[in-house]
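Case study.
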Amino acid sequence: MATSRTKATDADIVLRVLRRTRQIRDFRPEPVPDELLNEILEVGRWTGSAKNRQPARFVLIRDRARLDRLAELAPTARHLSRAAAGIAIVMPGENEEWDAYDEGRVAERLLVGANALDLGAGIGWATPSARAAVADLLGVTPPAFVRTFVSIGYPSEAAMAPKSAPGTARRPLADVVRYERFG
Amino acid sequence: MATSRTKATDADIVLRVLRRTRQIRDFRPEPVPDELLNEILEVGRWTGSAKNRQPARFVLIRDRARLDRLAELAPTARHLSRAAAGIAIVMPGENEEWDAYDEGRVAERLLVGANALDLGAGIGWATPSARAAVADLLGVTPPAFVRTFVSIGYPSEAAMAPKSAPGTARRPLADVVRYERFG
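After joint prediction, the assembly is written out as follows.
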């Protein structure tokens, strides 16, 4: 698309990463350098939040036995067992609505940051029934809690293969956008 | 920082945008080309969601009177009155936790997308007491609802000026990261 905007190339690079970023849940076994994990954590640190509370804390987990145990406790985060590292997001538990919203914001930014570094990342949740055991394992004291795990690693070939023909799994723009009024 | 990773330049470009993206609430009066608004909506469309529900719908608002009215109804989104356009995010209202989390994810990606295009964007909420009036104005039928408005425009000079010395408004990494265990 021809545009007159400045820095078209930089914008295109960022938009491409934003569009290609999707959940990766299968990883190659190689480790991820600490330097890259730190860059992802920096991205998390700079994520905005309601009233600039900066409510999120991050537990970086690289210990294999701990990752495996968390994968058992939180079935939708079982990809932790194949990940080089995991980030548990600790939220304060003071306001359910703000916590969920701000946690979604920061989780999303971690995903995009990992993708920018040619890593893969996947979001998994500790469902409510698992949260006490997860909190115990990670030393998190209520009302603070962990809902989100972000698995990080180099994507496996299988994870990178397209799962469906382009366009079939995603609603078209005309389905999701309205103008001036919704209905 | 010296690294051996490939495409370091592309990664650095994306990480720079991720780090610099913050809320912009004051805008120059010039309009934003529809083409750029469409690129931002495409970024929204491709945002992931729990169980791939793709629950978010977007109402793009460019009508000045409508933006002004929404700014009155939703005081934390009063920046709509200075924005070239606004996006109202319509969520299904079926699961409070999932809705808030997925809405945070998509709002965050819209912010980053706008920044990538050298635009500014700010998040505002319709608080619960305003939601009935907002839904009525936008033709949204319960249980669907609008909580988030994203204002979009070219940042004013005042909005781009740093508000505080670097580092004073943001917690340092050592405050927000733990290793293996939180406490």
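Observations recorded in class. The two ends of chain B are 31 Å apart (CA to CA). Residues 41 and 107 of chain B are 11 Å apart (CA to CA). We will return to this complex in the next lecture.
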